[in-house]
Every structure is written in C-alpha cells, then in structure tokens.
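G., the chain you wanted modeled:
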Amino acid sequence: MSVTVEDVKKVAHLARIKVDDSQVGKVQESLNGILNFVEQLKEVDCSKVDDSVQYDAKLHERADVAVKCDPAVMDNAVQKECNMFVVPKVVG
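Predicted structure as tokens:
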C-alpha cells in the first residue's frame, strides 16, 4: 500500500493539520514508512502464541480520589485561574 499526495492532503484536512506543499513529500514518505512497518508486522508468525496471553496480567487499580497538588506544580502553569490550569478549548 502506498500513500499518494492526495491521501496526505486528505488526512491532513481530516486531522485539521496544516501541511504546506513543501512538506507533503516528507509526510508522504513518513506515512509510507509507517505502513511498510505495519506490513512487516503482518509477516510475524504468531501461530504459537496463545491468544489469552495478553489477558493474563492483572490490572492494578487505584482508588479514584482527589489528592492535594504540590503548589510548585502550579508555578509551571502557562495560564492559571483560581489555582487551576487554564487550557484551550478543544471541543466546539
């Protein structure tokens, strides 16, 4: 599978990423490299791996409780208000 220039532009548009025409070739090369790596992974023989291996691990859960934040952490905030981080709105 090969990514075309049109594919790069479409993916960039869908991801809301600005890709200048001068960068399209580099992005195309990167995406093709990723897809080639995925193709290599498909060639790995996993027939002797038990399907349940990934489910054997126990997840260590912790209580979902609020903890007091070290005041020094807020010193690194770019913007803060009422002792909370201010971040850009990401949902319209």
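The chain has a mean pLDDT of 87.

Shout if anything looks off.
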